[in-house]
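Troubleshooting entry. The earlier prediction with adenosine-5'-triphosphate gave an output that would not parse, so I re-checked the input for stray whitespace and re-submitted. Clean input:
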Amino acid sequence: MWNKIVTWWNSTMRDRPYAPGRQIDRYLITKVLGTGSYGIAYLAKDLTDGSDVVLKQVKPSLRLSPKGEAMQAYEQKVLSTLSHPQIPRWLHSFTYRKDSFLVMTFIDGPTLEEALFDQMITVDEYSAARLMKKIAEIVAHLHEHRLIHRDVRIPNVIWHNDEPYLIDFGLARFLGDSPTYSAEALSDYHSEKQLKREVAPSSDLFALGHFFLFLLYSSYTPDENASEQSWEQELSLSPAIHAMIRRLLQLDPPYHTVKQFLCDLEDYLRESNHSNIRPWSQ
Ligand SMILES: Nc1ncnc2c1ncn2[C@@H]1O[C@H](COP(=O)(O)OP(=O)(O)OP(=O)(O)O)[C@@H](O)[C@H]1O
Protein backbone atom coordinates (compact mmCIF):
# COMPACT_ATOMS: atom_id res chain seq x y z
CA MET A 1 0.00 0.00 0.00
CA TRP A 2 2.78 2.42 1.00
CA ASN A 3 4.51 1.93 -2.38
CA LYS A 4 1.24 2.72 -4.16
CA ILE A 5 0.86 5.94 -2.16
CA VAL A 6 4.45 6.99 -2.99
CA THR A 7 3.92 6.24 -6.72
CA TRP A 8 0.67 8.25 -6.73
CA TRP A 9 2.32 11.15 -4.87
CA ASN A 10 5.28 11.20 -7.24
CA SER A 11 3.25 11.10 -10.44
CA THR A 12 0.50 13.53 -9.45
CA MET A 13 2.33 15.99 -7.21
CA ARG A 14 6.15 15.83 -7.16
CA ASP A 15 6.60 15.15 -10.88
CA ARG A 16 3.87 17.50 -12.06
CA PRO A 17 5.36 19.44 -15.02
CA TYR A 18 5.73 23.21 -14.97
CA ALA A 19 2.78 24.78 -16.81
CA PRO A 20 3.09 26.55 -20.19
CA GLY A 21 3.59 30.29 -19.60
CA ARG A 22 6.04 29.70 -16.75
CA GLN A 23 9.47 31.32 -17.10
CA ILE A 24 12.44 29.22 -15.98
CA ASP A 25 15.78 30.97 -16.08
CA ARG A 26 15.84 32.63 -19.50
CA TYR A 27 13.31 30.18 -21.04
CA LEU A 28 9.54 30.55 -21.39
CA ILE A 29 7.74 27.19 -21.41
CA THR A 30 5.32 26.95 -24.34
CA LYS A 31 4.35 23.26 -24.23
CA VAL A 32 4.91 20.09 -22.21
CA LEU A 33 6.25 17.58 -24.77
CA GLY A 34 6.11 14.53 -22.56
CA THR A 35 7.35 12.67 -19.53
CA GLY A 36 10.00 10.00 -20.11
CA SER A 37 11.69 7.51 -17.81
CA TYR A 38 13.93 10.04 -16.07
CA GLY A 39 12.72 13.42 -17.18
CA ILE A 40 10.07 15.82 -18.32
CA ALA A 41 10.54 17.42 -21.75
CA TYR A 42 9.27 20.91 -22.60
CA LEU A 43 9.19 23.07 -25.71
CA ALA A 44 10.36 26.54 -24.65
CA LYS A 45 11.40 29.87 -26.08
CA ASP A 46 14.84 31.24 -25.33
CA LEU A 47 13.98 34.83 -24.40
CA THR A 48 17.44 36.07 -25.33
CA ASP A 49 17.07 35.29 -29.05
CA GLY A 50 13.49 33.99 -29.55
CA SER A 51 14.62 30.52 -30.66
CA ASP A 52 12.62 27.37 -29.84
CA VAL A 53 14.49 24.89 -27.66
CA VAL A 54 13.78 21.67 -25.76
CA LEU A 55 14.28 21.68 -21.97
CA LYS A 56 14.69 18.34 -20.21
CA GLN A 57 14.14 18.40 -16.45
CA VAL A 58 15.10 15.53 -14.13
CA LYS A 59 11.91 14.28 -12.45
CA PRO A 60 11.94 15.71 -8.90
CA SER A 61 11.20 12.23 -7.51
CA LEU A 62 14.47 10.97 -9.05
CA ARG A 63 16.68 13.84 -7.83
CA LEU A 64 18.78 11.71 -5.52
CA SER A 65 18.49 8.34 -7.24
CA PRO A 66 21.05 6.90 -9.70
CA LYS A 67 18.41 7.36 -12.41
CA GLY A 68 18.18 11.14 -12.02
CA GLU A 69 21.08 13.57 -12.33
CA ALA A 70 23.50 10.84 -13.47
CA MET A 71 21.33 10.00 -16.49
CA GLN A 72 21.01 13.65 -17.39
CA ALA A 73 24.73 14.29 -16.98
CA TYR A 74 25.42 11.34 -19.28
CA GLU A 75 22.94 12.60 -21.91
CA GLN A 76 24.67 15.99 -21.78
CA LYS A 77 28.07 14.33 -22.27
CA VAL A 78 26.72 12.37 -25.24
CA LEU A 79 25.03 15.32 -26.96
CA SER A 80 27.96 17.66 -26.41
CA THR A 81 30.36 15.08 -27.92
CA LEU A 82 28.36 14.87 -31.14
CA SER A 83 28.14 17.36 -33.93
CA HIS A 84 25.85 16.11 -36.68
CA PRO A 85 23.21 18.08 -38.61
CA GLN A 86 20.55 15.40 -37.93
CA ILE A 87 21.08 15.12 -34.16
CA PRO A 88 19.95 17.72 -31.56
CA ARG A 89 22.76 19.89 -30.23
CA TRP A 90 23.35 20.41 -26.51
CA LEU A 91 23.09 24.13 -25.76
CA HIS A 92 23.14 24.71 -22.02
CA SER A 93 22.56 23.10 -18.59
CA PHE A 94 21.44 24.85 -15.41
CA THR A 95 19.75 24.36 -12.04
CA TYR A 96 16.51 26.17 -11.19
CA ARG A 97 15.12 25.80 -7.63
CA LYS A 98 16.89 22.41 -7.17
CA ASP A 99 15.65 21.14 -10.57
CA SER A 100 18.32 20.21 -13.13
CA PHE A 101 17.66 21.21 -16.73
CA LEU A 102 19.39 20.35 -19.98
CA VAL A 103 18.72 22.52 -23.05
CA MET A 104 18.99 21.24 -26.63
CA THR A 105 17.93 22.33 -30.11
CA PHE A 106 14.30 21.67 -31.04
CA ILE A 107 13.59 19.59 -34.14
CA ASP A 108 10.21 20.60 -35.54
CA GLY A 109 8.16 17.86 -37.20
CA PRO A 110 6.24 14.63 -36.67
CA THR A 111 7.99 11.54 -35.39
CA LEU A 112 7.95 8.60 -37.80
CA GLU A 113 5.53 6.92 -35.39
CA GLU A 114 3.09 9.84 -35.82
CA ALA A 115 3.64 9.90 -39.59
CA LEU A 116 2.97 6.17 -40.00
CA PHE A 117 0.19 5.66 -37.47
CA ASP A 118 -1.62 9.01 -37.15
CA GLN A 119 -1.09 10.45 -40.64
CA MET A 120 -1.38 6.93 -42.21
CA ILE A 121 1.60 7.52 -44.48
CA THR A 122 2.70 4.43 -46.39
CA VAL A 123 6.19 3.54 -47.55
CA ASP A 124 6.95 1.11 -50.37
CA GLU A 125 9.98 -1.19 -50.26
CA TYR A 126 12.27 1.08 -52.27
CA SER A 127 11.36 4.20 -50.24
CA ALA A 128 11.78 2.23 -47.00
CA ALA A 129 15.30 1.23 -48.13
CA ARG A 130 16.15 4.87 -48.96
CA LEU A 131 14.92 5.99 -45.55
CA MET A 132 16.82 3.17 -43.82
CA LYS A 133 19.99 4.32 -45.58
CA LYS A 134 19.61 7.83 -44.15
CA ILE A 135 18.95 6.49 -40.65
CA ALA A 136 21.76 3.93 -40.82
CA GLU A 137 24.14 6.73 -41.87
CA ILE A 138 23.33 8.63 -38.65
CA VAL A 139 23.82 5.44 -36.61
CA ALA A 140 27.15 4.78 -38.40
CA HIS A 141 28.25 8.30 -37.38
CA LEU A 142 27.47 7.47 -33.73
CA HIS A 143 29.42 4.22 -33.94
CA GLU A 144 32.40 6.07 -35.41
CA HIS A 145 32.33 8.08 -32.15
CA ARG A 146 32.17 4.82 -30.13
CA LEU A 147 28.59 5.58 -29.17
CA ILE A 148 25.69 3.09 -29.17
CA HIS A 149 22.20 4.68 -29.20
CA ARG A 150 20.32 1.60 -27.87
CA ASP A 151 16.88 3.10 -28.58
CA VAL A 152 16.63 3.45 -32.38
CA ARG A 153 12.86 3.30 -32.77
CA ILE A 154 10.26 5.10 -34.91
CA PRO A 155 9.13 7.45 -32.06
CA ASN A 156 12.76 8.61 -31.76
CA VAL A 157 13.09 9.77 -35.37
CA ILE A 158 11.63 13.15 -36.34
CA TRP A 159 10.90 14.03 -39.97
CA HIS A 160 12.01 17.60 -40.65
CA ASN A 161 12.81 19.33 -43.98
CA ASP A 162 12.59 16.01 -45.84
CA GLU A 163 15.27 14.41 -43.63
CA PRO A 164 15.14 12.09 -40.60
CA TYR A 165 16.60 13.37 -37.30
CA LEU A 166 17.55 10.99 -34.50
CA ILE A 167 16.61 12.11 -30.96
CA ASP A 168 16.44 10.73 -27.41
CA PHE A 169 19.96 9.87 -26.30
CA GLY A 170 18.80 8.96 -22.78
CA LEU A 171 19.92 5.34 -23.19
CA ALA A 172 23.02 5.97 -25.33
CA ARG A 173 26.34 4.66 -24.01
CA PHE A 174 29.96 4.90 -25.05
CA LEU A 175 31.59 1.52 -25.78
CA GLY A 176 33.07 0.12 -22.58
CA ASP A 177 30.60 1.91 -20.26
CA SER A 178 28.14 0.07 -18.04
CA PRO A 179 24.77 -0.74 -19.65
CA THR A 180 22.78 0.18 -16.50
CA TYR A 181 23.01 2.78 -13.72
CA SER A 182 21.61 0.65 -10.95
CA ALA A 183 22.65 -2.62 -9.38
CA GLU A 184 20.59 -4.64 -11.86
CA ALA A 185 22.68 -6.51 -14.42
CA LEU A 186 21.93 -6.90 -18.09
CA SER A 187 21.46 -10.63 -17.47
CA ASP A 188 18.39 -9.78 -15.30
CA TYR A 189 16.57 -8.71 -18.49
CA HIS A 190 14.78 -11.13 -20.84
CA SER A 191 16.81 -12.18 -23.89
CA GLU A 192 15.40 -9.69 -26.45
CA LYS A 193 15.88 -6.77 -24.04
CA GLN A 194 19.46 -7.93 -23.39
CA LEU A 195 20.10 -7.79 -27.14
CA LYS A 196 18.61 -4.27 -27.36
CA ARG A 197 20.49 -2.92 -24.36
CA GLU A 198 23.93 -4.38 -25.01
CA VAL A 199 26.59 -1.67 -25.37
CA ALA A 200 27.70 -3.00 -28.77
CA PRO A 201 26.90 -2.24 -32.44
CA SER A 202 24.75 -5.41 -32.52
CA SER A 203 22.04 -3.74 -30.39
CA ASP A 204 21.58 -0.83 -32.84
CA LEU A 205 21.70 -3.24 -35.81
CA PHE A 206 18.98 -5.37 -34.17
CA ALA A 207 16.89 -2.21 -33.62
CA LEU A 208 17.41 -1.21 -37.29
CA GLY A 209 15.90 -4.58 -38.28
CA HIS A 210 12.71 -3.82 -36.33
CA PHE A 211 12.74 -0.26 -37.65
CA PHE A 212 12.84 -1.57 -41.24
CA LEU A 213 9.90 -3.88 -40.53
CA PHE A 214 7.81 -1.01 -39.10
CA LEU A 215 8.35 0.96 -42.32
CA LEU A 216 7.51 -2.02 -44.53
CA TYR A 217 4.36 -2.85 -42.55
CA SER A 218 3.00 0.63 -43.34
CA SER A 219 1.89 -0.64 -46.78
CA TYR A 220 0.59 -4.00 -45.51
CA THR A 221 -3.16 -4.59 -45.52
CA PRO A 222 -4.12 -7.37 -43.14
CA ASP A 223 -6.59 -10.00 -44.23
CA GLU A 224 -9.30 -9.75 -41.56
CA ASN A 225 -10.06 -13.48 -41.81
CA ALA A 226 -6.50 -14.78 -41.77
CA SER A 227 -4.72 -15.60 -38.53
CA GLU A 228 -1.58 -13.67 -37.63
CA GLN A 229 1.61 -14.94 -39.27
CA SER A 230 5.30 -14.09 -39.12
CA TRP A 231 6.70 -11.05 -40.98
CA GLU A 232 8.26 -13.41 -43.51
CA GLN A 233 4.85 -14.80 -44.42
CA GLU A 234 2.93 -11.51 -44.25
CA LEU A 235 5.26 -9.23 -46.22
CA SER A 236 6.18 -9.79 -49.88
CA LEU A 237 9.77 -8.64 -49.91
CA SER A 238 12.45 -8.79 -52.55
CA PRO A 239 15.11 -11.43 -51.74
CA ALA A 240 17.74 -8.72 -51.07
CA ILE A 241 15.64 -6.87 -48.47
CA HIS A 242 14.48 -10.13 -46.91
CA ALA A 243 18.11 -11.26 -46.52
CA MET A 244 19.15 -7.90 -44.97
CA ILE A 245 16.38 -8.05 -42.36
CA ARG A 246 17.24 -11.64 -41.45
CA ARG A 247 20.84 -10.58 -40.82
CA LEU A 248 19.79 -7.47 -38.81
CA LEU A 249 17.51 -9.61 -36.62
CA GLN A 250 20.33 -12.15 -36.17
CA LEU A 251 18.31 -14.95 -37.79
CA ASP A 252 21.21 -15.40 -40.26
CA PRO A 253 24.91 -14.61 -39.68
CA PRO A 254 24.64 -11.02 -38.42
CA TYR A 255 26.28 -7.86 -39.69
CA HIS A 256 29.23 -6.81 -37.53
CA THR A 257 29.06 -3.15 -38.51
CA VAL A 258 26.44 -0.70 -39.77
CA LYS A 259 28.76 -0.05 -42.73
CA GLN A 260 28.24 -3.66 -43.93
CA PHE A 261 24.47 -3.11 -43.82
CA LEU A 262 24.90 0.20 -45.68
CA CYS A 263 26.87 -1.56 -48.45
CA ASP A 264 24.00 -4.04 -48.99
CA LEU A 265 21.45 -1.20 -48.98
CA GLU A 266 23.47 0.76 -51.54
CA ASP A 267 23.75 -2.30 -53.82
CA TYR A 268 19.99 -2.82 -53.58
CA LEU A 269 19.21 0.85 -54.32
CA ARG A 270 21.60 0.90 -57.30
CA GLU A 271 20.18 -2.30 -58.76
CA SER A 272 16.55 -1.30 -58.19
CA ASN A 273 16.97 1.65 -60.54
CA HIS A 274 13.75 3.22 -59.30
CA SER A 275 12.33 6.30 -61.00
CA ASN A 276 9.78 7.26 -58.32
CA ILE A 277 11.88 8.80 -55.57
CA ARG A 278 9.19 10.18 -53.29
CA PRO A 279 10.16 9.28 -49.71
CA TRP A 280 6.60 8.14 -48.95
CA SER A 281 2.99 8.54 -50.03
CA GLN A 282 -0.36 9.19 -48.39
N1 LIG B 1 15.23 17.72 -29.60
C1 LIG B 1 13.93 17.46 -29.71
N2 LIG B 1 13.19 18.09 -30.66
C2 LIG B 1 11.87 17.85 -30.76
N3 LIG B 1 11.17 17.03 -29.96
C3 LIG B 1 11.85 16.38 -28.99
C4 LIG B 1 13.26 16.57 -28.82
N4 LIG B 1 13.65 15.79 -27.77
C5 LIG B 1 12.55 15.15 -27.32
N5 LIG B 1 11.46 15.51 -28.04
C6 LIG B 1 10.07 15.04 -27.84
O1 LIG B 1 9.76 15.16 -26.47
C7 LIG B 1 9.03 14.03 -26.00
C8 LIG B 1 9.72 13.50 -24.74
O2 LIG B 1 11.02 13.09 -25.10
P1 LIG B 1 12.05 12.42 -24.11
O3 LIG B 1 13.28 12.18 -24.89
O4 LIG B 1 12.15 13.18 -22.86
O5 LIG B 1 11.40 11.18 -23.57
P2 LIG B 1 10.68 9.88 -24.04
O6 LIG B 1 11.13 9.45 -25.39
O7 LIG B 1 9.22 10.13 -23.86
O8 LIG B 1 11.16 8.90 -22.94
P3 LIG B 1 12.54 8.25 -22.53
O9 LIG B 1 13.50 9.33 -22.12
O10 LIG B 1 12.11 7.39 -21.41
O11 LIG B 1 12.99 7.46 -23.73
C9 LIG B 1 8.97 13.04 -27.15
O12 LIG B 1 7.67 13.13 -27.71
C10 LIG B 1 9.96 13.55 -28.16
O13 LIG B 1 9.46 13.35 -29.47
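This one parsed fine. The mean pLDDT is 89.
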